[in-house]
Design a protein that fits this description.
heterodimer; A: about 600 residues; alpha+beta; five-stranded mixed beta sheet; two-stranded antiparallel sheet; 18 helices; disordered N terminus; disordered C terminus; B: about 120 residues; alpha/beta; five-stranded parallel beta sheet; about 45% helix; globular
């Protein structure tokens, strides 16, 4: 028989489709019907009961074949138990049929019937052992406790008062054992079903119900012997149904190993499942103290021990749980502390950053004020010097001797140099802060070049350098006239400065695509390959310039580059063959230069 | 024959003020001068000059404040004002224009530039 995976299909559907269930129902109906009609046929009806038990035993045997490990042992035990029961029933039936009178005493058959419970309850115990629920042992102890309490209390208050003769008391006691064992099994399995809730598998429910029906049968037997009623029909029907239920359970056993279906037990058992065993225990304590008889007192004391064992089991489990919980809360506390610390660190960092920002803002403001102050403080005396010198050199305050004139001209030249230096530094400060702004207008680059070449004429003549302009005479674009003029002046003056006597400086303009190209080329000594990449960095001076002490701050090209790039253009340098340097400025023709553009602060200086 | 134009020069730097006065008088203008903003304003109201040359950074009132005061007063509202400034950032120049200045001259300026701008402003008027 193949087991069915009962995790998904609904219960009712499975039962309705199972032939065993139909057979069970049919056989029970027959027993009841015939038994009700003619009570004397009960002996024969017990054959039906035996047959049902046989079917159950065989089914459990087959289930054991297909199971593994603990599950296999469980089903083997069920099969053995059912086999004993079935064989005993057949033996009994045959004896009765042969003519043996059933005495009102304990018989050998009782021994066999009672021995049925040994494998059955062992199997229940194994089911518990295979589980990984918390408080597994507690369930077993609860079962035993409740069963014992029920038996003792039933005896003390119900059965004993009804039985008068002492020999009948023994019989009654043995008869009471049956339902007591049934109850023990029911409570243990039922407790498990309570824990699993809706996840209880079908076979577990079927086994519990089978025990329930057996308990019903056993109780009705006792009732019959007490009250003298003919209740064999009820027991026969109940036993038959129980046998078939065992078969159904075996048919629907879970394929998975027993322990895996306890993966999600309820974490907290319901309150009443804790209180009932305690109440039973207390009742047993009461009976033990009032002592209605030696056997009963012994049983009650046994129950008290069970109670104590249960308490110990609870405590042991609880301690383990408590330890786990403490570990978890310790971990949680550690995590919270770490989180708090991390947050604190983050807050401190944030505060430090905010403070740093404030400092930087303050520094920025101070630098701004410094630059403004420098502008004023340098430019004011330069104004005075320049203007007074002019008046003197023009002869407006008296005639000058040649030497005086010459000397004062030197003063003027150096003053102008100083003034240019101040302007360069202040412009560089603006560029560095990203505060360079342009006044953009229509610009004729050719005209600008012509002006620059003309004003650089005297310097070129002094240096013995031939200065020429070539290429297109005009080139229209949009730009800041003053700034672009500065760039051109800078390139031309550099070329003149670094070209030896007799050399040439050529200024060229031509259009190329959508751009205007300005080239300033000289025949000077050129720039070394390792220095050519650094030319535009602030304050950079070539070895040649330093060795020959050529005047300059190292800012001219930096400023030129910033101006050109803020126009959307590019400036580059290359060495000429056989010797010399050529600077090239490319300016876009399109009027895409935004007014008031801010130039990116130069990265090297940050 | 009309008198030569009267120019008010205000600058707290004595050297600069004196060379400007020298330059303008040589060019044939009449010049009065003040060493701070309040004095400049008083003189302006008293004499109604044809042009005011005002430095920005002065004690008392700044050149901007003097400009604003001149432009708001009906007696001097039509007087052209040129601001002399060592501060060259566009924000500073804009402030001058916002205050009502008609033009500016950046320091350090050359004598030629000073002469040209003054002449241009007077002609415009």
């Amino acid at each position: 028989m193949n087991p069915i995976d009962n995790t998904r299909s609904p219960l009712r559907a499975r039962l309705l489709s199972c032939p065993l269930a139909w057979a069970a129902a049919a056989s029970v109906a027959v027993v009841l019907g015939v038994g009700m009609a003619d009570p004397d046929l009960v002996g024969q009806l017990q054959l039906a009961q035996g047959f049902a038990e046989l079917v159950g035993a065989v089914a459990c045997g087959f289930a054991a074949r297909h199971a593994a490990g603990r599950a296999r042992l469980t089903w083997i035990l069920f099969a053995v138990g059912l086999g004993i029961w079935c064989a005993t029933d057949f033996a009994f039936g045959i004896s009765v049929a042969v003519g043996w009178e059933v005495p009102d005493a304990i018989t050998i058959f009782d021994a066999f019937w009672l021995s049925f419970y040994v494998p059955m309850l062992t199997a229940v115990g194994i089911i518990y052992r295979g589980l990984r629920t918390e408080r597994g042992w507690q369930g077993l102890l609860d079962g035993a406790l409740i069963a014992l309490a029920t038996a003792v209390l039933a005896w003390v208050w119900v059965l004993a008062p009804l039985v008068v003769e002492s020999s009948s008391r023994l019989v009654m006691a043995v008869d009471a054992l049956y339902p007591a064992f049934d109850l023990a099994a029911i409570v243990s399995l039922g407790w498990l079903m309570v824990r699993l809730g809706a996840d209880s598998p079908l076979w577990l429910r079927a086994v519990a119900l089978a025990f329930g029906l057996q308990a019903l049968a056993d109780l009705s037997y006792i009732a019959g012997s007490l009250l003298g009623a003919r209740v064999e029909v009820v027991s026969a029907a109940a036993f038959t149904a129980a046998g078939w239920l065992w078969a159904v359970a075996a048919r629907f056993r879970t394929r998975a190993p027993v322990r895996t279906w306890t993966a999600s037990p309820r974490s907290v058992p319901p309150l009443w499942s804790q209180l009932v065993p305690v109440a039973c225990g207390l009742a047993l304590v009461a009976v033990a103290f009032t002592g209605p008889g030696r056997v009963v007192t012994a049983a009650a004391v046994g129950g008290v021990f069970l109670m104590v064992a249960r308490l110990i089991a609870v405590l042991v489990m609880d301690r383990r749980l408590l330890a786990e919980r403490r570990e978890v809360s310790e971990m949680r506390a550690t995590l919270l502390a770490e989180e708090r610390y991390a947050r604190q660190v983050a807050d401190e960092a944030r505060a430090a950053v905010a403070q740093q920002n404030e400092r930087l803002k303050e520094l920025d403001r101070m630098k701004d004020e410094f630059v403004a102050m420098v502008s004023h403080e340098f430019r004011t005396p330069l104004t005075a010097i320049h203007n007074y010198l002019y008046a003197v050199l023009e002869g407006e305050v008296g005639a000058l001797e040649e030497t005086q004139r010459r000397f004062l001209t030197v003063v003027q030249r150096n003053t102008d140099r100083l003034a240019r230096l101040v302007e360069d530094l202040l412009l560089f400060a603006q560029i560095h802060d990203g505060r360079l702004s342009l006044t953009v207008d229509e610009l004729d680059v050719g005209e600008l070049l012509a002006e620059s070449v003309e004003s650089a004429g005297p310097a070129a003549r002094n240096a013995g350098v031939r200065l020429q302009q070539g290429g297109d005479p005009t080139g229209l674009t949009a730009g800041d006239r003053v700034r672009i003029g500065q760039v051109v002046d800078n390139l031309i003056s550099n070329a003149i400065k670094f070209t030896p006597h007799g050399g040439q400086v050529h200024v060229d303009l031509h259009a190329s695509g959508d751009a205007i190209v300005i080239e300033v080329a000289d025949t000077g000594p050129g720039i070394a390959p390792d220095e050519i990449g650094q030319l535009f960095t602030p304050f950079y001076r070539t070895r040649h310039a330093t060795e020959n002490v050529v005047p300059g701050t190292g800012l001219g090209l930096t400023i030129s580059k910033a101006i050109v790039e803020s126009h959307g253009g590019a400036i580059s340098v290359r060495s000429r063959e056989p010797r010399g340097t050529a600077f090239r400025v490319v300016l876009p023709i399109a009027t895409t230069v935004a007014e008031e553009t801010a130039v990116e602060p130069i990265g090297a200086l940050r | 024959m009309t008198q030569p134009p009267l120019i008010l020069v205000a600058d707290d730097e004595d050297d600069v003020r004196e060379i400007i006065v020298f330059r303008l008088e040589r060019a044939g203008y009449r010049v009065i001068c003040a060493a701070d903003g309040d004095e400049a304003l008083t003189l302006a109201f008293e004499t109604s000059p044809d042009l005011a040359l005002l430095d920005v950074m002065m004690p008392g009132r700044t050149g901007w404040e003097v400009t604003r005061a001149l432009k708001e007063d009906p007696r001097t509202a039509s007087t052209p004002v040129i601001i002399l400034t060592a501060r060259s950032r566009d924000a500073d120049l804009a402030r001058g224009f916002e205050a009502g200045a008609d033009d500016y001259i950046r320091k350090p300026f050359s004598p030629e530039e000073l002469g040209a701008r003054v002449k241009a402003m007077l002609v415009r008027r």
